[in-house]
Design a protein that fits this description.
Distance between the termini: 66 Å
Number of strands: 18
Largest sheet: 8 strands, mixed
Number of helices: 16
Structural class: alpha/beta
């Protein structure tokens, strides 16, 4: 921030936040070796990168800084702006040894020996180099690990940093998705590797595209570099998926997602309250790795098959969740609410269901074909508007992390989308919806 101020190019609050965290050190050097910054377009990513590059050259004696982007023009644009700043600032210009602008050999070298150069976004581009800082712009465009691996291995012996910026990706953004997944795991696991710093500004998936709150969530430079009128124009002119990724920094996996765009957001009813007097169906789901579980209630709101969804409880563990403790908690909810049924999947929650059944609470196996039917029923309730929810953050995250997996009989079921979090609450929601929209067959009410 001090360098940016000295150059008359101060950082915005969000950029200062990134620098404060990404540039923290410990007794071994940089605390965060990998730094990933996701933010909407035109928010100032390029300025942040060029200040980091200049700081490395001028303040920290980083001998070699290499930069790339999937589009060569993107990397060159940053290179040209860094060179322009250096040449137009007298105290920096006096430190320049040479500038090469030859196509394919662009490089800025200082008298100290520090260099900044552009490399091709290929496996062979940085081969043979040993770098102190790697810059990768537009990481969302990397559909393989070739360039990423080539860049990161240049830091093996230097303890240097990699900085990468992007806006939201999609199913093909394999490198970005892997890093995001790693960041999510780090948040949920206290003992996880903390060498990755991940900062994302994105709009809540529960908000509609024209919601100004969503605009401010994803655009920390709104009111500084861009105005609402500019986003308004883009909202009206751009296709929805383009606006979603570019302006709201939201992932778009339309082919992978079971839900039409905005279907879940359109079901939001902030006035929805949980009413213990309404007919209530529960469902419990446990993830296959047994680290997460969720309990969902779906209530019949009226005689027109309108239903209300509520996330009641979640559990997580570093190893495996405690079936006995969860069974006790579910049983208490079921008694307090006079639940008509507790749905479960026999492949993951049979032990919990058995304990609940032993105390006289009706349970129903909703696995296999029944679960495929439940997923389709949830989709129908969602797109028809018969489903309502209050916008609970965790429930929304699980629903929007879902992917569609086709089954051999032509049906489909909810599974976890790559690089997304757990979907236990979405699975439980589907099962509870299944029982909320139809009479309960007596044969289904008991295990075995």
């Amino acid at each position: 921030a001090g360098l940016a101020d000295a150059l008359g190019m101060p950082l915005l609050p969000w950029q200062k936040h990134v620098c404060k965290n990404a540039l923290s050190v410990n007794d071994k050097g940089w605390q965060h070796r990998t730094n990933v910054i996701l933010v909407a377009r035109q928010s100032g990513k390029t300025h942040l990168l060029r200040m980091r590059i200049l700081a490395g050259l001028l303040l920290w004696d980083e001998k070699l800084i290499i930069a790339t982007a999937q589009s060569r023009e993107v990397a060159l644009e940053t290179f040209r702006s860094v060179v322009e700043i250096a040449q137009n600032t007298p105290w920096i210009a006096s430190e320049i040894k040479r500038v090469s602008v030859t196509n394919g050999k662009e490089e800025l070298e200082l008298k100290s020996g520090a260099r900044y150069k552009i490399v091709a976004p290929t496996a062979g581009g940085p081969r043979g180099l040993t770098a102190d800082l790697c810059i990768i712009d537009e990481l969302r465009e990397h559909s393989s690990f070739d360039s990423w691996a080539a860049m990161t291995y240049t830091l093996q012996t230097t303890g240097g940093q990699i900085w990468t910026t992007s806006n939201a990706g999609d199913a093909t953004s394999v490198v970005l998705n892997r890093l995001r997944d790693q960041a999510m795991q780090s948040i949920s696991s206290p003992g996880a590797d903390k060498s990755l710093y991940y900062a994302e500004w994105s709009a809540s998936p529960t908000l509609k595209l024209d919601d100004r709150e969503a605009w401010y969530q994803a655009n920390p430079s709104l009111g500084y570099l861009i105005e609402e009128e500019a986003l308004e124009a883009r909202f009206r002119s751009d296709p929805a998926n383009v606006f979603r990724t570019e302006a709201l920094c939201q992932w778009v996996d339309v082919l992978d997602s079971p839900w039409p765009p905005e279907a879940w957001a359109n079901c939001t009813n902030s006035q929805l309250v949980f009413d213990p007097a309404l007919p209530t169906m529960l469902a419990i789901d446990v993830t296959p790795d047994r680290r997460h579980a969720a309990l969902v209630a779906v209530q019949q709101l009226d005689e027109n098959e309108n239903i209300g969804a509520h996330l009641l409880d979640t559990w997580e563990a570093d190893g495996a969740i405690d079936d006995l403790a969860i069974a006790g908690a579910v049983a208490k909810h079921a008694r307090d609410l006079n639940a008509r049924v507790v749905g479960f999947d026999r492949y993951t929650a049979a032990g919990i269901a058995a304990r609940i059944a032993q105390v006289g609470i009706p349970v129903a196996d909703c696995s296999g074909i029944a679960f495929s039917t439940a997923c389709d029923e949830l989709l129908g309730a969602m797109v028809s508007g018969r489903l309502q929810h209050a916008g609970q953050e965790t429930l929304s995250e699980h629903v929007l992390s879902s992917a569609r997996k086709w089954t051999s009989d032509g049906g489909w079921r909810i599974v976890r989308r790559q690089s997304a979090g757990p979907v236990a609450a979405a699975v439980a929601l589907a099962m509870a919806t299944h029982y909320a929209i139809q009479p309960l067959p007596k044969a289904e009410l008991f295990i075995g």
